[in-house]
Amino acid sequence: MFLVQVTRRNISNSVPVASSFGRWYRDFWQPAPANEPPYDHVTQIGDPVLRKKADPVPPEMAKSPEVQYLIKSMVNVMRKFSCVGLAAPQIGISLRILVMEFKEKLKDEYTSAEYKIKEMETLPLTVFINPELKVLNYEKKTFPEACQSVRGYSGEVARYSEVLLRGVDENGSEKELALKGWNARIAQHEMDHLDGIVYTDLMKRNTFTCTCWQAVNEKRGRVSIFFHKKMIN
């Protein structure tokens, strides 16, 4: 079927079959459906979903197909954007679910000194539904922190050194996990998202930095920040 694309009232040079006529006709006046969550991108600061306290998942729904689909979507987006953690509101769903993963290969992205001072270590894929956080060590350490929901920026944030997460895993089983160092930071960052808090609320304000400021200068301002996999161009 050939359509001459002039306006939404285009006329076809052939008549659609009856079974599809209704759908064909509606296409002329109904707007295309908007993208709906769960998204395959990360929501950005300003989106109201990031400022709402997320709702708990009903216990009987933990193993439901809907929750399992959401968890799978979260893991896919986390890995797509090379994140180490993601909360459900970051893909548009205001439910208390978080995922974390710190792969061994990330060690190659840091100097040995940085890896050591930040107390980084491998964390296998970890899922928590309705997590609760308990502080185990109230000593705080400050490091630059970034977030895919504030893409292209970072700021220094103080976090507790050791925490305990309790909740339910993706199989509906009760789970608890003690974390320290950088993994404790990841857990606190994602827990904040579940409470409508973004790291910019907690950071030392004069450390707020555009992570590509050097590229901006080198390329005379001809730099774009993308909100998909690619970071800058």
Level-1 CATH class name of the largest domain: Alpha Beta
**Main beta-sheet strand count, sense and barrel state:** 6 strands, antiparallel
Could you give the count of β-strands? 6
Stretches where pLDDT is under 50 for at least 5 consecutive residues are 1-17
Structural class: alpha+beta
Helix content: 10-25%
Rounded mean pLDDT is 89
How are helices and strands ordered from N to C? HHEEHEEEHEH
Provide the β-strand percentage band: 15-25%
| CATH-assigned homologous superfamily of the largest domain | Peptide deformylase
Overall domain count = 2
Quick take:
The protein has 233 residues and is α+β, with helices and mostly antiparallel strands. 22% of the residues lie in helices and 25% in strands.
Which helices and strands appear, and what pairs or packs with what?
Elements: H1 18-26, H2 65-80, E1 85-87, E2 97-102, H3 112-117, E3 123-146, E4 153-168, E5 174-180, H4 181-194, E6 209-210, H5 213-218
Antiparallel strand pairs: 1-2, 2-3, 3-4, 4-5, 4-6
Question: What features would you describe in this structure?
Answer:
- There is one protein chain.
- The protein is an alpha+beta fold and about 230 residues long.
- The chain folds into 2 domains: about 1-35, no CATH class; about 50-205, Peptide Deformylase.
- The chain contains 5 helices and 6 strands, in the order H-H-E-E-H-E-E-E-H-E-H.
- Strands 1, 2, 3, 4, 5 and 6 form a 6-stranded antiparallel sheet that branches.
- A hairpin with a 6-residue loop joins strand 3 (about 125-145) and strand 4.
- Residues about 1-15 have low confidence and may be disordered.
